[in-house]
Amino acid sequence: AQLAGHSDGGRVIAIANQKGGVGKTTTAINLATALAACDKKVLIIDIDAQGNASTGLGIDRKARTVSTYDVIIDRKPIEEATISSVVPRLDVVPSSIDLAGAEIELIDLDRREFRLKDAIRRMSRHYDYVLIDCPPSLQLLTLNALCAADSILVPLQCEFYALEGLSLLMRTIERVRKAFNPALTIQGVVLTMYDKRNNLSDMVASDVREHFGDKVYETVIPRNVRVSEAPSYGIPVLVYDMHCRGSKAYINLASEVLRREQTPMAEVGTA
Ligand code: ADP
Ligand code: MG
Hints:
With 271 residues, the chain is an alpha/beta fold. It has helices spanning 24-37, 52-56, 68-73, 78-81, 99-106, 115-122, 140-148, 166-179, 199-212, 225-229, 237-240, 245-262; strands at residues 11-15, 42-46, 83-84, 90-93, 129-133, 151-157, 185-194, 216-222. This is Chromosome partitioning protein ParA.
């Protein structure tokens, strides 16, 4: 497959939505795990001060001596912060709580929107996919992710307010394209925490499909208790219980991502 973007051929995907609790981190961890299971080399960069992606992959706080804070603020080489996870072929750049202050510290730094892009560009290791797990905001850290990325993958929770706030996200993408990263595309929209007993889930799903067309993955991630249990063991649900519905859905999502990589679709929302 021909991969767009970075010179080493890897694809950088920002997993972003300014809403919290919509499944960004869960999608980052489990899509990454499923891609690694498909023999891809994958890196997750955790840029949320909460550090849920790091914790969910069993990276002990004590092991996070160098974190995304040091990479973004102090320009430490990303390799120094990179840790292997329990999943073969999946590495993690963990975050630390210092990142909570980075938003303000960034304001006065040069190339403040491009610090993460610069770090990824200087990275000597090759990855097929770099997934950036974003914080629930559209401030400078998320902006760094959108400037570093080839594309954005948007998880949307199947709930009443799912579409609220999306126009702000789309305007932000447009602004990033105009000012910083003209090549930024929408990788896809994935519906999460779908509950088949809830009619609202279906209404939301069809609304989102009407709005985003074939940018919405066919795969829908069901609400599944195994998915929510796995992080407390510090392992992806695919390792915790590979046969549960949540795991199967993330395997399907990964194969859809890989399949779509080979047959790019028309852009939605491109000027
Ligand atoms: P975000 O990173 O967008 O804040 P998370 O991925 O952390 O969202 O998910 C929010 C909460 O919902 C977490 O407790 C997570 O375990 C849970 N969760 C996410 N996806 C599912 C799912 N498919 N089924 C059940 N619980 C889920
Ligand atoms: Mg998160």
